[in-house]
Amino acid sequence: MTQFAQPITSGYQYGFHKPENYAFKAKKGLSQKTIEEISWHKNEPDWMTKFRLDALKIFYTKQMPAWGGDLTKIDFNNIYYYIKPIGKKAKSWEELPKDIKDTYDRIGIPEAEKKFLGGVSAQYESEVVYKSIQNTLSKKGVIFLDMDSGLREYPDLVKEYFGKLIPPADNKFAALNSAAWSGGSFIYVPKGVHVELPLQAYFRINAANMGQFERTLIIADEGSFVSYLEGCTAPIYTTDSLHAAVVEIFVKKGARVRYTTIQNWSTNVYNLVTKRMRVDKEGIGEWVDGNIGSKLTMKYPSVYLMGKGARGEVLSVAYAGANQHQDAGGKAIHFAPYTSSKITSKSISARGGRTSYRGLIQVFPHATAAKTKVVCDALLIDDASRSDTYPTMDIRHSDVQVEHEATVSKIGDEQLFYLLSRGLKKADAEAMIVNGFIEPIVKELPLEYAVELNRLIQLEMEGSVG
Q1: pLDDT tens digits, residue range 409-429?
Q2: Which of 4-13, 46-55, 403-412 shows the lowest mean pLDDT across its residues?
Q3: Which end of the chain, N or C, is more open, meaning fewer C-beta atoms within 10 Å of its C-beta?
Q4: Rounded distance, CA 202 to CA 261, Å?
């Protein structure tokens, strides 16, 4: 008898599930036929079809990572690699099918678009179902499309950059994404243009056993600026889903890009993401990375400092509750002189959860007078939880400044006693301490995201999520 995955009732606020009603749903499993079917449905050029099929061959030859979290329970043959939710992309929220529109209404994306955003992209399963950008930005030459539309409308530009920072052979999950990618964002900001309001993408998994493989490519030309926000959720099922994204960002001379992620996947999602940013002369590249949900996250945003005076920063916060492992951190690679980087990692483990900081600093021989600093702080809520630190420093030049500091602490009895004596409940007191612990990262978020992150962690503290 066939068994169907069932949604699990939970206090997790994004765990609601909508009935499956799709324009097309591929058969389960990964094969050459599946990849060719994806490319055919998207009417892609021959070079992209070949790119996908070559990546699939690489995927089969690559070994699973032998480090990080437990990946042995991923069944690649029990995953849907492509689900097309609607026939064509909607031009307004009202044009979306009611069940999909209800999803975004409950999450608050349409309201956020009106108040805070310069543009928004909404992906449901494998496809972007809605995309908009303010006319003022379009008139300045800013391109903000889903990745599929970017390939159709700007094929030469996409071909020039696609897969150049993260080739399929980089790792097994980059190869998988390169073969099965669908959706994601394509952004180009012209020289000297500053996008003052953030652009946002929202990724939603609705189906059970779903594999979501969005591909994002951002190109910030000389002297430009853009801030990009990303949010992710999924219902909780009795079976697992897989999210394996690839993000490539090119920061040209004197440009600045800030990429902010708040991922609140449910506890049945494997979140395995490769993110890389190339920063040219005097450019600034910033990652702000919040990881709250998922069964297992393995994600290490990196900055490749290629030009003189380039700067990079990674701000990472991770929360692991019961049955969760957050293996996160950051990488900074110094290729040029007078480059600087900073990695700040904050992690919280509670109710038996596990967090791991995994980081890499590399300074190559030509990187004279490079500066780098790593700050890694972990907070344990109880004796059942665990935190690990795996820093790697590869310094190949003597004229550099390198700093590394790490702490692991527990909530102190004195702190709790003080707050309880002021009339707070224990859960509220613990949440207040945690919010103070992550404040250096939260203050870097847009207000709405900061409020959301604090609220999500409060729900986790209460054991309401998952």
Answers
A1: 887 778 788 888 888 888 778
A2: 4-13
A3: N
A4: 10
